[in-house]
Amino acid sequence: LPKNLQRPPSGSFASSSDGLGDINEDNVLVQQMQNAYELRESDGVLDLALSSEDSAPSWDDVFHHVTVASAGRKGVAASMLNAWIGSNCIREDVEISAANALNLLHAWEAKLDSHSDGETIITPDMVTYSLAYSAVIRDPNRLSDAEAVLEKGLRLSKKTAGSKRRKALAAARRRKTEMATDRIEDLRALLDPEFNVLMETEDFVVVNKPAGVACSHRILTTAGKTNKKGRPTQNSDMSLVDALLNCNVALSTLNPESQGLVHRLDRGTSGCIFLAKTDDTHAQAVAEFFCRNAKKKYTTLVAPAPSDDHGIVDIPVGGRPARSDHLVVKRFGESKAAIIEMTTYTGRKHQVRVHAAKGLQTPVVNDELYGFSTTANEAMADLAECLASTSTYESGRERFFLHAAELAIPALGVDVEAQPLPGW
């Protein structure tokens, strides 16, 4: 990991173990929070919390610091508080970490119950309860506390789901369950022959998602429905979640919008994606991604080729800090195009596509949203034959040359590769 992405050693931020109440220390910590969030958002605040020498701070003080540092921006305040809870998923002392996570969550909930008129209300979300659960479950003496936290998260999920989603979630809980590996041919018929199961347990499944397939549909429609024979209806747009549910593969209900999904791939991207089957695994996976313990590597075909064989791309994506590492694997046609590997250290939407196009000045082939042009790009002469066979499916589904090749989540025992590349 590059030095500028490594977590700082304990004590590297100016903090004190004498308490957080002193005015000067108040100002210092607030300034540190603001600086950390401005530079790296929740990642920076997470590292600030980890570096604090105060292992059991006053949570009223933490709320005060966050309120001042966030300047009343509710989204920023929630992100900072989540980062502080998330730090307890990483600390070595599991007993102190579990107590800290519970204390902060309870203090947060108490603030909701006692807020005054006109006071900014910051509401815990699914990420909050996932982080708290993951911190508490590490302490074998607090299993009942962990279950109570997860139950709160499930109640929140049910409350925010809406009536249609609630009915779908209730039906999912009653449905008989099967393993994806036992329904592989049915899943390929619903999605694409390139679909494959990379790893599966009773708690999760990791699959190779074909390009052109959406992970899920945020709005419930008939797009993912099948006919009586179990085949997609006319004009169907079968998502990955739709297909798995249609094949009776159990998926967690902690995410009310998209069952089982902890992270996403764009419709046009193929490769590794993790789906949780149980709610406790879903919560732990959310914590692993939040704390940047999940490792993702992408393989992509870009044109033209980057000027450097290796380097760090550090430019914002969607106005948010984002960093990636790129490595040229193979060059084509006097560097008119190249296959590169890109490792992401943050998880922004379209991060690889933006970093390739704007950071390296080498758009992903077929990604017209970020500047690739089949008429203007000189590399097309060398790639025409390859594109003719792999650029689109017969169904006309969106596809570009980006593949999530590797995914590792060590805490859950996940370490998979989606090989070979899809027709490249």
Features:
disordered N terminus, 424 residues, 9 strands, alpha+beta, 9-stranded mixed β-sheet
Describe this structure in words.
Helix content is 38%, strand content 14%. The protein is an alpha+beta fold and 424 residues long. Strands 1, 2, 3, 4, 5, 6, 7, 8 and 9 form a 9-stranded mixed β-sheet that branches. β6 (323-332) and β7 form a beta hairpin. α1 (23-51) packs across α3 (74-86).
User: In DSSP terms, counting alpha (H) and pi (I) runs of 4 or more, how many helices?
Assistant: 12
Largest sheet: 9 strands, mixed
What's the assembly state of these chains? single chain
Distance between the termini: 29 Å
Rg over alpha carbons: 23 Å
Tell me the fraction of residues in β-strands, as a range: 5-15%
Question: What's the short version?
Answer:
This protein is an alpha+beta fold and 424 residues long. The protein has helices spanning 23-51, 59-70, 74-86, 94-114, 126-136, 143-160, 163-174, 184-190, 240-246, 279-290, 351-359, 380-390; strands at 196-200, 204-209, 270-276, 295-302, 310-314, 323-332, 337-344, 402-409, 414-417. The chain has twelve helices and nine strands.
What topology does this entry show?
Elements lengths: L22 H29 L7 H12 L3 H13 L7 H21 L11 H11 L6 H18 L2 H12 L9 H7 L5 E5 L3 E6 L30 H7 L23 E7 L2 H12 L4 E8 L7 E5 L8 E10 L4 E8 L6 H9 L20 H11 L11 E8 L4 E4 L7
Parallel strand pairs: 3-8
Antiparallel strand pairs: 1-2, 2-3, 4-7, 4-8, 5-6, 6-7, 8-9
